[in-house]
Design goal:
The chain is α+β, with helices and mostly antiparallel strands. The chain is 22% helix and 30% strand. It contains 13 helices and 32 strands. Helix 4 runs parallel beside helix 5 and helix 8 runs parallel beside helix 9. The protein starts with a strand and ends with a helix. It catalyses: Hydrolysis of terminal non-reducing beta-D-galactose residues in beta-D-galactosides. It is an enzyme of class 3 (hydrolase). This is Beta-galactosidase.
Length: 599
């Protein structure tokens, strides 16, 4: 049986080995894509693949687990082994990864007193409950049991959040109690403050760093930190950032391939690295993360292309070939090959078949929850997507004031089903003047609130703003209104299938647009969203993710596995009153820069 040890070097069967790894997130692509991505990693010259394991996709509701399809981590690891790759697993309950809430499940927010990533007994019980289901699936994959898994992560960048070593110790103890035998590690930034706060070096938990340049300087910090604790472990960068993530309304961030290749060469001469990301993939559905800048939340886009070595769809980039050459120069003995490429197609232009207003079909797709005070998305639904709050106000037959209190993230107000205003970020809380119809005794106020993504990093993880929907209430004149009807819209396959397109259409209201079409063959493709406003697209029940005309991306990637040879159904949920007339495919991604070039 193969052995793995961490001494002054990484040892495989007592032979020194440099770990050349790349990050591939099984949950950000379809299972049919895994093989090509893993093949291209091996062809690069790598010997290892690394992946996070997000808690929120595997336990979407407390006690309900999902390890099927895109969530089948065991099949992904077994496939990596079959293709001759070792595996690094990061099953920590927090992953960051520009993933919704850093991988923490939204249902944790139902307990408003819970302190996340701490020794809070309730939180640790939840951790144990989750690990007691997850880890037994991973144990047979360990190298000690004939599998490919070399090591597992205890916590992720904890030194950038807290310093409660007892929390780390309890997490480590749970993992070992449940049967983890391979070496454990932590990963943090490469400066003393976070290394002191986030590591368990005193308990022989291997220390790794996260950085993407200045390899000599960052590695020296890691080496000095380990030396002060009497360790002579090998240097490993667990996240060697080869690109970066992107946010709505900001330019795409790119990195020069030659510069990256030079930095990779420098790092490989020092030690081991894991390229983050090798293949980024897609934040399907509502799983994009969010950055926190001061008091402002900045949600990230659907594409997790990351300017990585493979594009979002899996195509090798100039970076791929530059890094492949860099690896060969430093490690001439590695086996390399030409990568696999992908075929993308423009599948055509198809007219909208039907449309219906959200208000007209609401009863068919979402149950109504009545309450005196507003319930949050976590209380009245899954915590993801949208929540429609409906209120009945007395009509005083003159202008009256409305104010939203403690609402996250984006709210659209409709008075008697007529669009009034949108409040987002700093605008939420500003007074809005409304008037009812003279002949009516009441005013119907509908508020569509969108969860645009919870923060995945930093101080806001325990901030009340991460509970989405209306937390405070709605002030009418100068008093809080009582009496709410909540409708949760997570737009899963069941809700999409229940839409009643025979009801009334009104493109000025939030609306669903249905496109029925037939394909003779399927292929990877993109959907061109340049003529749309803001919303989300479902392809045969699969949620691709969000689009928004703020950019910087104007397409949504659609893998061929979501399409059907024969009849297909695409449903677009458009929230901005932009009437949609057609579905347009594209054979490539469209960014603001790409559109400018093509023009």
């Amino acid at each position: 049986m193969t052995t793995f040890e961490i001494k002054e070097e990484f040892l495989i069967d007592n032979q020194p080995m440099k770990l050349i790894s790349g990050a591939i997130h099984y949950f950000r692509m379809t299972p049919a894509q895994w093989e090509d991505s893993l093949y291209n990693l091996k062809a690069l010259g790598a010997n290892t693949v690394e992946t996070y394991i997000p808690w929120n996709i595997h336990e979407p509701q407390k006690g309900t687990f999902d390890f099927s399809g895109r969530h089948d981590v065991v099949s992904f690891v077994r496939l990596a082994q079959k293709m001759g790759l070792y595996v690094i697993l990061r099953p920590s309950v927090y992953i960051c990864a520009e993933w919704e809430f850093g991988g923490l499940p939204a249902w944790l927010l139902q307990n408003k007193q819970l302190r996340l990533r701490s020794t809070d007994p309730i939180f640790m019980q939840y951790v144990y409950d989750y690990f007691s289901v997850l880890l037994p699936k991973l144990l047979p994959l360990q190298i000690t049991q004939g599998g490919p898994v070399l090591m597992m992560q205890v916590e992720n960048e904890y030194g950038s959040y807290g310093m409660e070593k007892e929390y780390l110790r309890q997490t480590k103890a749970i993992m070992e109690q449940l049967g983890v035998e391979v070496p454990l590690f932590t990963s943090d930034g490469s400066w003393d403050e976070v290394l002191d706060a986030g590591t368990l070096i005193e308990e022989d938990v291997f220390v790794t760093g996260n950085f993407g340049s200045h390899s000599k300087e960052n590695s020296a910090v890691l080496a000095d930190f380990m030396a002060r604790h009497g360790k002579k472990w090998p240097i490993m960068c667990m996240e060697y950032w080869d690109g970066w993530f992107n946010r709505w309304g900001e330019p795409i961030i790119t990195r020069d391939p030659a510069e990256l290749a030079q930095d990779v060469k420098e790092m490989l001469k020092i030690g081991s690295l894991n390229l983050y990301m090798f293949h980024g993939g897609t934040n399907f559905g509502f799983y994009n993360g969010c950055s926190a800048r001061g008091t402002t939340d900045l949600p990230q886009i659907t594409s997790y292309d990351y300017d990585a070595l493979l594009t979002e769809s899996g195509e090798p980039t100039a970076k791929y070939y530059a890094v492949q050459q860099a690896i060969k120069e430093v490690c001439p003995e590695v086996q390399q090959a030409a990568p696999r490429t992908k075929k993308l197609q423009h599948l055509g232009v198809f007219p909208v078949t039907n449309s219906v207003s959200l208000f007209a079909t609401l009863d068919a797709i979402a149950p109504k929850i009545q309450s005196t005070y507003p319930q949050t998305m976590e209380e009245a639904g899954t915590g993801y997507g949208y929540m429609l709050y409906s209120l009945t106000l007395k009509n005083y037959r003159h202008e009256t004031k409305i104010k939203l209190v403690e609402v996250s993230d984006r709210a659209q107000l409709y008075v008697d089903r007529q669009y009034q205003t949108t409040q987002y970020r700093e605008a939420i809380g500003e007074e809005v003047l409304i008037s009812g119809k003279e002949e009516q005794e009441t005013i119907a106020l509908d508020i569509l609130v969108e969860n645009m993504g919870r923060v995945n990093y930093g101080f806001k993880l325990n901030n009340p703003t991460q509970s989405k929907g209306i937390r405070g209430g709605v002030i009418h004149d100068i008093h809080f209104h009582q009496g709410y009807t909540q409708s949760s819209l997570n737009l899963d396959a069941e809700q999409i299938a229940a839409i009643d397109f025979t009801k009334e259409a009104d493109p000025t209201q939030p609306s669903f647009y249905e496109v029925d079409f037939t394909l003779a063959e399927v292929c990877d493709t993109y959907i061109d969203c340049r003529q749309y406003g803001k919303g989300i697209i479902s392809v045969n029940g699969h949620l691709l993710g969000r689009y928004w005309n703020q950019g910087p991306t104007y397409t949504l990637y659609c893998p061929k596995e979501f399409l059907i040879t024969g009849k297909n159904k695409v449903v677009i949920f458009e929230t901005e009153g932009s009437e949609i007339n057609e579905l347009v495919f594209s054979d490539h991604a469209l960014t603001a820069k790409q559109i400018e070039v093509e023009a």
